[in-house]
Design goal:
Blueprint (H helix, E strand, L loop, with lengths): L10 H13 L4 H21 L2 H6 L8 H15 L2
């Protein structure tokens, strides 16, 4: 269900936002909705991640099973040349 929202912004901000939306072939309403959706989802995700997990993220690169098998095959080829 869509609900109308009224906000007060500086005229220059509105004009720049309209131009930005037009350049991306979208409406200002859609742009604002996407922004609100994004920031509200980020806060939910932030609350679920513990400090320990944050400190560990990025230590081990994610490798898909397919890539892992390919890397192992290359390793074996080099090992037994």
């Amino acid at each position: 269900m869509d609900t109308k929202l009224t906000i007060k912004l500086d005229e220059h901000i509105i004009e720049r936002a309209k131009k930005y939306a037009k350049e991306r072939n979208t409406s200002l309403s859609k742009l604002v909705a996407n922004y609100f959706d994004k920031i509200s989802m980020e806060s939910v995700v932030e609350e679920e991640i513990t400090p320990l997990i944050k400190s560990l993220s990025g230590i081990v690169p994610h490798i898909s099973e397919k890539d892992e098998k390919e890397a192992y095959a290359i390793y074996l080829k080099e090992k037994y040349k």
